[in-house]
Amino acid sequence: MADPVGFGTRITHIAARIPDRPALTFAPVGGPETVLTWADLESRANQTARLLAACGAGPGTRVIVALRNGPAHFLAAIGAWKVGAMVLPLKHSLPPREQAAFTELVGPVVVVADGWERPRGAALLGTAELDGAGDLESGALPPIVPRPGKAVASGGSTGRPKVIVDPRPWAHRPGHAPGVGAAHGFGAGQTQLVAGALYHNAPFCWAHLGLCEEHHLVLTDRFDPAHSVDLIERHRVQFLFMAPVMMQRVMRLPGIAERDMSSIQTLFHTAAPCPPWLKRAWIDRIGPERVIERFGASEAVGNTCITGGEWLTRPGSVGRGENTHIRILDADRRDVPTGTVGEIFTRPLHVTGPTYEYLGSPPATTTPDGYTSVGDMGRLDEDGYLYLADRLPDMINNGGVNVYPAEVEAAISEHPDVADVAVVGLPDEEYGRRVHAVVELAAGRELTEAELTAFCRERLASEKVPRSVEFRDRLPRDEAGKLRRRGLVPDIPVRSDP
After folding, report:
1. What integer pLDDT is reported at residue 411 of this predicted model?
2. Where does the signal peptide begin and end (predicted)?
3. Which residue among 1, 204, 312, 433 is least enclosed by CB atoms within 10 Å?
């Protein structure tokens, strides 16, 4: 097998072969489309690389990219890799306090962002400076494999900044399909829709892995369900990633049944539990083998995968381990019986050396024989298929009964008037925690607490039915569909009424 090729060098190789083909189409909501060919991407990324190098970027250094979705995000990341630096994508709209916390933790040599305060000890470049790099040399740079090349940020369960560094080479391996691979619908030369925020791991990685496989990326500035469907039709999109909340908003669009999504070869989803009704809707719409779900963590300590066809025989499962051993352990780190919920511990096969390094946090919980947990709960069936429950901090102990928010959310999301929902536990004098639902209604719809409670009673055991409901105009999800439940707990006094 050929030697690994750094991600930045891989762009050079592709541009030399297909310089005039489109590499990136930027299609903002409500704005005109612009196209970068492979030759454009290569020359501009080379100029950006030289600009970053002039500011101190190079092997072993760290570059923060905190830009909105757009071509500049790709130029900054690829440019950093071309000089051997590590890239950390961050949310562009972080408040100054969080900006300072991350830059202090990471120690970057360059921050690429608009509207940020200049970090101590680092250069600050904005899109204007990247645009101004057009006068620099645009020729190819010497080959280099960044190691490490990528990191992602996480608030963690504490809310304090945490960075997950991938210490492995950030490289393309010719002849080796990345990620889930061609067998699961990710192949060379596809058209890929990038509708998620690039500061999240899945959209960021799939987009750049796609470039290394000669994908034509169709990039939006933000997720809009109607716009995304327009782009699928217009560009005949073949591969796309969506979080379940994005999938739901597309499926609830008026007239969605008449839209042409026949080009889709793979809808890949992860990031959150997918309600069964929603999974079935997508399977019915595009076919079971085109719906792929994966469960794992940014720490790369193991993952599972399941096709829609497998899921139909085991509804609710996230699949079996993919080159991964899985154990379900109790609080005393003992294996639990098959079918019993416990903490999920995984160990990847054929991996030598660490797959992650934390900045700002101690290592994840690991057993003496190398199984690691990042706090997720679940159970295994007799054939080794994994079923998720919830993360330990999210589980609600309601009078001694464990209630998993994802199950309650899935039931509530079936209601046609509900656009989004999150379930949290509120303090209760009698029960310890009571189930509280925060609901976003679909546009123009009305629903009362009593009506929603009655709907839940038809689908859930009594202890899982929300004892209080709060309606909000919009749940505070980010562009990738992520939501921190701890930020939803309202200032409601403790009550003891049954």
Report:
1. 87
2. none
3. 1
Residues 130 and 171 in one domain: yes
Q: Which amino acid is at 277?
A: W
Sign of CA dihedral 305, 309, 313, 316: positive
Number of structural domains in the chain: 2
CB 387 within 8 Å of CB 408: no
What region does 96 belong to: left with phi over 0, alpha with psi -120 to 50, or beta? alpha
Assign 306 to helix, strand or coil: strand
pLDDT for 496 equals: 39
What distance in Å separates the CA atoms of residue 345 and residue 450, rounded to the nearest whole number? 40
Using the 3D structure, point to which of 318, 349, 378 is the last residue of a domain: 378
Q: Give the chain's end-to-end CA distance (angstroms, integer).
A: 66
* Contact indicator for 184, 292 with CB cutoff of 8 Å: yes
CA dist., res. 104 & res. 472, Å (int): 35
Q: Within this chain, do residues 276 and 317 fall inside the same structural domain, yes or no? A: yes
What CATH number should be reported for the domain holding residue 221?
3.40.50.12780
pLDDT for 270-281, tens place per residue? 877 788 899 999
Nearest to 205 by CA among 302, 298, 319: 298
Check residue 430 and give left, alpha or beta (phi > 0: left; psi -120 to 50: alpha): alpha
Please state, in angstroms and as integers, the Cα–Cα distance from residue 157 to each residue in 26, 82, 308, 371, 485, following that order: 35, 34, 31, 20, 10
Nearest to 278 by CA among 396, 178, 182, 415: 415
Structure tokens at 286: 């595009």
- Nearest-angstrom CA–CA distance, 215 and 217: 6
At 498, is the pLDDT very low, low, confident or very high (cuts 50, 70, 90)? Answer: very low
Distance CA 212, CA 145 (A): 14
Asked if residue 36 belongs to a domain, the reply is: yes
d(C-alpha 402, C-alpha 464), whole Å: 9
Question: Global pTM?
Answer: 0.83
Residues of the chain with pLDDT > 90: what percent?
64
DSSP per residue, 267-278: EEE-SSPPPHHH
Q: What single string gives the DSSP state of each residue in 370-399?
A: S-EE-S-EEEE-TTS-EEE---GGG-EEET
Element (H, E) at 426: strand 418-428
